[in-house]
Amino acid sequence: MKDALLVVDVQNDFCPGGSLAVADGATVVPILNQYIERAATAGIPIFASRDWHPAQTAHFSAYGGRWPPHCVQGTSGAAFHPDLRLPAGTVVVSKGMNPADEGYSLFEARLEDGRDALTALRELGVTRVHVGGLATDYCVRATALDALAAGFDTFLLADAIRAVEVQLGDGARAIEEMRAAGAQEETLEHFHLMA
């Protein structure tokens, strides 16, 4: 068994003041920093995904999608939250780069060398993943469900996720869906790693 920590989309546009802000989105940052520190100390891989959209994409409302512009490549809104402490060696993966892609799941993301995240995780021998970040009801949900579908033991960092809540209760429904698919919940108090 080998673990990886998956930090999903902790970007300025998803935090208070951003163009698609998650209520209390920034509150995940200090908690994720503790997970990141433990993962780095244990020597397990850390993957950090980011929405990295072109200015024109079917994902945005102006082009037929459902969302306002957010996380446009190279903008300050697309940058990771300034307080997120990603160590050297963090694998940054980018998603939503194709104008036709929604890009919700970290498993749709690519490394700078063009490899997809799933290939990179498998090459590292990862069998268990720990998923936290933003937002519970979209990118965290999609990432956890894809991890389960790919055969990873999947743990949801219950204290380090927040929901968009387009409809009241979306976050709770997403958590229930992830649970039903086989995700287990954990918190810092019960965070156990296998390097």
Oligomeric assembly: single chain
Low-confidence stretches: none
Any idea of the CATH topology? Answer: Rossmann fold
User: Largest beta sheet, briefly?
Assistant: 6 strands, parallel
* CATH architecture designation: 3-Layer(aba) Sandwich
Strand content: 15-25%
The radius of gyration over CA amounts to 15 Å
The coarse overall form would be globular
The number of distinct helices, counting runs of at least 4 residues, comes to 4
What count of domains describes the coordinates? 1
pLDDT averaged residue by residue: 96
The helix/strand class is: alpha/beta
CATH class: Alpha Beta
SSE arrangement, N to C: EHEEHEHEHE
Count of DSSP E strands? 6
For the record, give the distance between the C-alpha atoms at the N and C termini, rounded to a whole number. 8 Å
| Helix content percent band | 10-25%
CATH superfamily: Isochorismatase-like
- What's the arrangement of strands in the largest beta sheet? 3-2-1-4-5-6
Attribute tags:
195 residues, alpha/beta, Rossmann fold, six-stranded parallel sheet, 4 helices
Description:
- The protein is of the alpha/beta class.
- It has a single domain (3-190), classed as Rossmann fold (3-Layer(aba) Sandwich), CATH 3.40.50.
- The chain has four helices and six strands, in the order βαββαβαβαβ.
- Strands 3-2-1-4-5-6 form a six-stranded parallel sheet, with helices on both faces.
- It starts with a strand and ends in a 9-residue tail after the last strand.
- The relative contact order is 0.20.
